[in-house]
Amino acid sequence: MKERLSRETIAMRIAKEFFDGAVVNLGIGIPTLVSSFVPEGIDVIYHSENGVVGFGPVVTADEMTAKADVDFVNAGGQYLSPKAGMCFVNHADAFLMVRGGHVDFTVLGAIEISGKGDLANWMLPGRGVGNIGGGMDLAFNVKRVICATEHTTRDGKPKIVKQCSVALTAPKCVNLIVTDIAVIEVTPKGLRLKEYAPGWTVDEIQAITEPELIVSPELKEYSLF
After folding, report:
1. Is pTM beyond 0.90 here?
2. CATH architecture of 7-221
3. Active site residue ranges
4. What share of the chain in percent tops pLDDT 70?
C-alpha cells in the first residue's frame, strides 16, 4: 500500500497558506493541529465561535497537565493556550465577526467535498445525527475555506466526489483541499491538482478521486518549505 502523509504533515502544509496578521478559525480534528505549525515570523489571530479572539495554539497532549484550563476552551471544547493581548467577546459578536466577513481563513474537516467545492462535514452517513455548530456560518462567510482531510474513507472510498451524498454544510464554498496525498485547488473550471505526496503519481491520485482532475502546469511534489 502506498505511504500517505500524516495528519501533522497536512497541518504543516495548510499553515503555509496563512499570511502575517490573518484572522484564522480552526475546526475540530486535523484543523486543530495547524496552530502548532505556523511558520516563524507569521503571527495569526485565532478566532473561536464561542467568543475567544487572539489566543495561542491549542494545548497538546504533552502540555495538558501544565496548561489545561477547563474555563478556557474553543468551540470544540479543546483547551487553549493564553496569549498576551487576547480578548473575550459576546457569543453573538464572535459570529458577527464571521458573518461580517472579518475572518480570513477557516480550516475545516470534511466528510465529502464535491467537484464544485460543495462541503459536507456535519452529518455522518448512516447515523442520522450531527451537529452543524458554527460550520455553516464559517463555510458561507469566511474569505477562504481550506479543507483538511484524508483523501479516502477508512474503507477506501473517495471523499472527493462528483456530488455529495450527505447533507451539505454549504455549496461551492471550498477554495483549497489538502489531503494526505494531494493539494487541490477548487476553480470555476474544476479541481486543479497542484501538489502530490512523495511516491504518488497523477494517475494514482485520480483513481481515488471521483471528479476529473485538472493537472496544474506548475504541478510539484508536496511542499512544506
Report:
1. yes
2. 3-Layer(aba) Sandwich (3.40)
3. 49
4. 98
